[in-house]
Amino acid sequence: MPRLADPGARFHSEACKGRRSPASISETKMSEANPPVERAPGARTTVAATPPGHVARPPRSLWSDAWRRFRRHRMAVAGALVLAFLVLGVIVGPVVWHSDPRKIDFSRSLLPPSRAHPMGTDDLGRDVLARVMLGGRVSLSVGVAAMLIAITLGTLIGAVAGFAGGRVDSLLMRLTDLFLALPVVPLLLLLIFLFRDSLRSAFGSERGIFILIVTVIGGLNWMTVARLVRSSFLSLKQREFVEAAHALGVGEITIMFRHMLPNALGPIIVAATLGVGAAIITESVLSFLGLGFPPDTPTWGRLLYDGQNFLDFAPWVVLWPGFLIFLTVLSINYIGDGLRDAFDPRSRL
Amino acid sequence: MGRYILRRLMFAIPTLLGISMVIFAILALAPGDPLAQFAADPSVPPEVRDRIRENLGLNDPWLLRYFKWLAALMRGDWGYSFASRVPVLDLIAQRLPQTLQVVGVAYLVSILIAIPIGIISAVRPYSLFDNLATTFAFIGFSVPTFFTGLLLILIFSVRLNWLPFIYDSTLRVTDWDTFARQVRQMFMPVTVLALFQTGSLTRFVRAAMMENLPADYARTARAKGLSEQVVVLRHVFRNSMIPVVTLLALGVPTIFTGAIVTEQIFRINGIGELLIKSIQNSDTPVVMAITFIFAVLVVVFNLVADVLYGVLDPRIRYD
């Protein structure tokens, strides 16, 4: 089940035009579902306690405000640190840890964790730590790339729909509704199953699958972003600064992307963060079902898939990659939660 | 009210048509030849192959083929499985009860857990209990189901040897003994699915309760001297359930999707397992049918959610 990280994303009903519909309700619910930690009365008084004019504050901007609020969300900061550590480990790790993740050595098969192999070895005697680091590279890059596709598509569609309005808007929103009603996981499986071989022959086995998985995950997850961007564009369109830009003769494309988009960025960033986690889980589900990357490309999901048969006598082969997926997604979800509070104008301190 | 439901229905039909067209187009555009088997067979000359293509209508434009397929679908002719030569509908009918059983119990369990937790969290926000529940919810929707499944197998089957890790679908519940066995084999799949679902559900219940607790009617209820318990459970809870009930309807397709993975881990022969097996066997008719069933689930439960929302909340106008 993909897009698991943001439960709100799954709950969008396809018909929601006008009125109080379940979907729009659930959207507001989600932002309130995770109220900021600093809304607790204690935190607020510390700010109020500083006498006005006592400290000359640098001019406030959206980003410094957001950063200040983000830092107060303890779990989000912890999540950011853990994620930074994981990313660093995955990038730098293979340089420092000299152990060939592809070297097969049957005399060392399924060794428990030891000094030489901190996470043990798998059935073919390969070092699990080295494979987990290599797999993390693939899993994380799938997550980021799929998110970029989803965000780009969603932003473009939402921006055009919100800006143009009228017939274009209703057409694009029909399309969004249709995509929201698609059964994502079966469709993902179907698409990958059908197009796997042709992409593999076109781009090589690893890159072909990467392109396919990333495109398919991204292409089926842009809908929430499109809705978010559309609704903020609809309200931004009425604002004076947009009218002023129009009056100055600024081009429409420039108004959309230079003037309006930066003001709609907060929710997009939150959606992007949560999207990375969801995409990582989706990829690992696909790999776990045997429809992801080929066996010689270790991703966290693939490692679990390969290791599940040794669960009873070599659990470390499964536990490490599984734990890392969990840790990554948990950190990302906490970061997303922190960012949501940080960008929420209602929690302005 | 009737007109509102009718309008929603009218909206669901084009959506379903659109989805069926998307699914069909994916299969039509996909590389690969349904007659590839014959191509490898030297006893079938190319002319014969062409004639078979012509007879099967494979040379028709794809829109025409789509409408033929749709017409057959409407008549209940979902084709035959390539792998087992059994009508697709029969195959699905065999598999559906197992899926429904596990999914249904899991959903019930997660509702029964999530509602009390959500209420207590909302009544005492930022308390120790609430913080624990929040952490639990975050863990719940961050841990991939296949990992929870494997962990549970490792703990309860491999280490403790308490529960069987392969689901025996031939088991018929006839007496207490078989019932106990059924409960034991359902324990892990249900836990995996429920854990995932409970996480987000708890958050929704909490948010809905938090929104209604400071409402005017709750203050009135308190002012006229009702006990806090009555205010929370009788007044606030019932109003908070309006969005939650619709979310429950919207969540049904999600939990079915979750079943795909769970059935794979615990070897339950439900429709999710059938889907994966059919994909691996290139059993196109079955794959298509199950994908379409999932699409129907999404659309139908969206409809149910919309209607429920209208029924439960009289403030909604239908026009």
Question: What's the layout of helices and strands?
Answer:
The complex is a heterodimer of chains A (349) and B (319).
Chain A: H1 7-10, H2 22-33, H3 41-49, H4 62-72, H5 74-96, H6 128-164, H7 166-180, H8 184-203, H9 205-219, H10 223-236, H11 240-247, H12 252-260, H13 265-288, H14 300-307, H15 316-343
Helix pairs in contact in A: 4-15, 5-6, 5-15, 6-7, 6-9, 6-10, 6-13, 6-14, 6-15, 7-10, 8-9, 10-13, 11-12, 13-14, 13-15, 14-15
Chain B: H1 2-29, H2 36-39, H3 46-56, H4 62-74, H5 88-123, H6 128-142, H7 145-159, H8 176-212, H9 216-223, H10 228-266, H11 271-280, H12 284-312
Helix pairs in contact in B: 1-12, 5-6, 5-8, 5-10, 5-12, 6-8, 7-8, 7-10, 8-10, 9-10, 10-11, 10-12, 11-12
Largest interface: A-B, 68 and 71 residues
Compute the number of helices of chain A. Answer: 15
Number of strands of chain B: 0
- Sheet with most strands of chain A: none
Question: What percent of the residues of chain B sit in helical stretches (DSSP H or I)?
Answer: over 70%
Class inferred from helices and paired strands of chain A? mainly alpha
Shape of chain A: globular
Q: How would the global form of chain B be characterised?
A: globular
Query: What integer value in Å does the Rg of chain B equal?
Result: 25 Å
Q: What structural class do the secondary elements of chain B suggest? A: mainly alpha
Q: Looking at CATH, which topology of chain A would you report?
A: MetI-like fold
How would you describe the oligomerization state of the chains in this entry?
heterodimer
Q: How large is the share of residues in beta strands of chain A?
A: under 5%
- Provide mean pLDDT of chain B, rounded: 83
Helix and strand sequence of chain B: HHHHHHHHHHHH
